Amino acid sequence: MKQPEGFKDGSGRVCKLKRSLYGLKQTTRCWNKCFAQFLTDLGFKASEADPCLYIRERKGRKLLIVLYIDDGLITATNQQDSEMFIKELKTKFKISVGKVSCFLRLEIEHHKDNSITINQKRICQKILKCFGFEECKPVATPMLKDCRLQKSETKNSDVPYR
C-alpha cells in the first residue's frame, strides 16, 4: 500500500481509513451495503431474481426500487407512496429527483396517457457505426410495435433462469 496522490509529508506512512474513499474499487460495495441496509430498515426486500431490485408491499400497494451503483429508479402503484419514500430518502442521502429520460442506456419516453416507451436507439446506432453497418437496410424488430404487455395467465415455471 502507498500514500494517495497529493499526500506530501515525505514520511511514506499510510493511514487506516475509517470509511470508504471515493474512487476505490470497494467504494461501490460499501455504498451498496449502506443503501441496502437503509432499504431493509424501511421494509424493502431484495428480489431473488435480481439483487438490484428492491420491493416493498404494504396494504396491497407496491413500491419498487432498482439500483445501479448510485443511480436508481423508483416506481409505485401509488404516487403518495413514492413521494413519502423520496422524503425518507432525502433525510439520509443527497439525491436529485425528476422524470427519467435515460437509464443504463435505455431511452425512456413518458406519454400523456401514463404509458412509457423504452428503446435503445442511440446505443444501437453506436454499435452499428462501430462495426460499419450504419448504412445497412433495417429489418423489423423482433417484437411487435406498440405491443402492450399483459400479466401472464400461466403458472410460473420452476426452471431457474435469469
TrEMBL record:
Kindly give the InterPro entries that the UniProt entry links to this protein: DNA/RNA_pol_sf (IPR043502), RVT_2 (IPR013103)
Q: Name one Pfam family in it.
A: RVT_2
All copies of the Reverse transcriptase Ty1/copia-type domain together span 1-145
Highest taxon, organism lineage: Eukaryota
GO biological process terms, semicolon-separated: DNA biosynthetic process
Q: What is this protein called?
A: Copia protein
